[in-house]
Amino acid sequence: MSSAAAGAFEAEKRELVSFRVDGQDFCVDIMSVREIRGWTAATVLPHAPPYILGVINLRGAVVPIVDFAARMGLKPTKPDARHVIVICVIENQTVGFLVDAVSDILGVDRSLIQPTPSVSSDLTCAFFEGVIAIDQRMLRLVEISAVLPRVGFREDRA
To answer: Cα(110)–Cα(132) distance, rounded to whole angstroms?
Structure first.
C-alpha cells in the first residue's frame, strides 16, 4: 500500500478510548487522552460544582478531577481503588475524569459514527458527537470540550 493510500485509510478511521461509567459505555478521541491512572484521592475544593471531586497533584500540576457519572446526570460515583482516572487535555487545560474502567482502544471507521438522535435534549446533543453501534454495544462518543468548556483556575488572584 502506498503512503498516500495508507494516509487515506487512516483518515477513514478514528482512534477512540472506550470506558464504562455506571454500566454505560462511552468513548473519547485518543488524541485528547494524556494518560490513564489509578484512583488517587482528591483534595476537595469548597464551593465547587458537585461533579468536581477536587484536585490532584500530577507531576507538579494541579489537575481538577470530574466525576464523569455525576456530570452526565448519572448516580455519583463513590471512588475506590478499582476506579481509574482518564487524564485528558481540553484545549490547554488538563482534566481528570473518574470512570469505572477503561475498556478498549478502538479504531472505528468514521462512517459508523451516527449523529446523536434529535429526540435528545440540547445538553445531551452538546455533550456527544454521536453514537457508535459496535460489538453488541452502543458507545456514546463524548465531545470532551463540551463536558467542561471552561475548566481552570482564575489568573487574576487579586
So the answer is: 9
